[in-house]
Amino acid sequence: MTSRHIAIDLGASSGRVALGTLDGGTLHVEILHRFPNGGVPVRGRLYWDILGLWREVLHGLKLAAQRGDIASVGVNSWAVDYGLLDEHGDLLNNVHHYRSARLNGVMERVRAELTDEMIYSATGIQFLPFNTLYQLAAEHPDHLARAHTLLMVPDLLHFWLCGAAVTERSNASSTQFFDLVRGDWARELLDALHIPAALLPPIAQAGSDLGELLPEVADLTGLRGVRVVLPATHDTASAVAAVPAEGTNWAYISSGTWSLVGIETPQPIISARTRQENLTNEAGIAGTTRLLKNVMGLWIVQQCNEVWKLEFADLYAQAAGIASGPLIDPDDARFLPPGADMPARVQAWCRATGQAVPQTPAEITRCVLDSLAQRCAEVLTTLEEVSGQPIRVVHVVGGGSQIALLNQLIADASGRAVVAGPVEATLMGNLLVQALSGQEAGQQDVAALRRVVRDSNELYHYTPQPSTNQTTPIKASHAD
């Protein structure tokens, strides 16, 4: 049987509307519409242009309507950011960007007030300054008093598509006020911060059918009889759903602006050690848990290239010809904010730590990629220790899976085989959760889903090499 589905993927720097055609055991993905995204600075704060994104989504849906019958549509996006709606379902204000300066010092204040033990034992979530918990703590009390409903970004778009106000489980788990063990909001944390828990909508499972497109959306797009079906709305959860793994003893790196380094576990692992290591437990599909750590990804190189304006392929090729050199800590807070001085920040770190200072774009890029690979390797070792689960294969998915140098460096630094691909893991995970959703939400056949991914993509193997300049992958159709 053949079915067609639409995936809307909103990323921090761009968005896509894609058509997925599932034909037998293979999935074909066609990107119909790409559009830019990014923060909009206003009076010292940073916002998302959420209405501009909605306009682009509608345009993409119009294009999809020209391709014949469509069964369903679903949205995924980055995590943590949200919109506040009034009692009529209207936005009260614009959607804040997680890199906004309004969050400066908020996490530290909340942690001092509630204690790390209380927060982590209830949620199992990594402490990051932009978590939704701290964003709500930064809201003006008047805004919260006027708000009726809080919807995470993809849930907000689902609300505009079909009128259903729910929060999908994977995105709920990223907020740092969701109890993954109980499967419900951690209301005691919100009560302690005087944040009204009544704002929070019901939790829904990936695969839930939210209903048909609203008549006004159908009229605007030409799509008729199309269902809105929840994917794993957190983009990393969708990407991990499409990791082409078999069996056990594997880890993943969802490699893009961020590197999400993790393993899949049947239950959350919440302990003093995972809190000490600042590991996060987030929901996956079909009741799984993603034990992972947010590691800085290609953000540093991306910001550097805002200055250099070079072709990324050329930049990585030049970096591959340079020997390993200095290292930075890519997770240091000084690399988090955007800015044209990112190359200087990398150089300043190397200078301050007594290392050779990279000068050229290729040297700086090599320094960053070496550092990212080393950091990923450290996290993989920690995950292995805290879970007791040996890691023999590392699956790299997302945009970073195309960078041969980075994949080889990860293999070398970790001493583990690396399987790279698919690039479009997030889209494929979104589409396949829609297409293979059973009669009961949250009961996807994960093995069948991943088999479709393996049969639909060309994958590449990297093995640890004595020389980190070896970047030629071995093609493989299946992961080990």
UniProtKB/TrEMBL annotation:
Residues 6-240 form the Carbohydrate kinase FGGY N-terminal domain. The keyword Protease does not apply. GO terms for biological process: rhamnose catabolic process. Keywords: ATP-binding, Kinase, Nucleotide-binding, Rhamnose metabolism, Transferase. It comes from the Bacteria. Belongs to the FGGY kinase family. InterPro entries: ATPase_NBD, FGGY_C, FGGY_Carb_Kinase, FGGY_N, Rhamnulokinase. Residues 251-436 form the Carbohydrate kinase FGGY C-terminal domain. GO terms for molecular function: ATP binding; rhamnulokinase activity. This is Carbohydrate kinase. It comes from Deinococcus ruber. The lineage of its organism: Bacteria, Thermotogati, Deinococcota, Deinococci, Deinococcales. Residues 458-480 are annotated as: Disordered. It holds the Pfam family FGGY_C. Residues 464-474 have a biased composition (Polar residues).
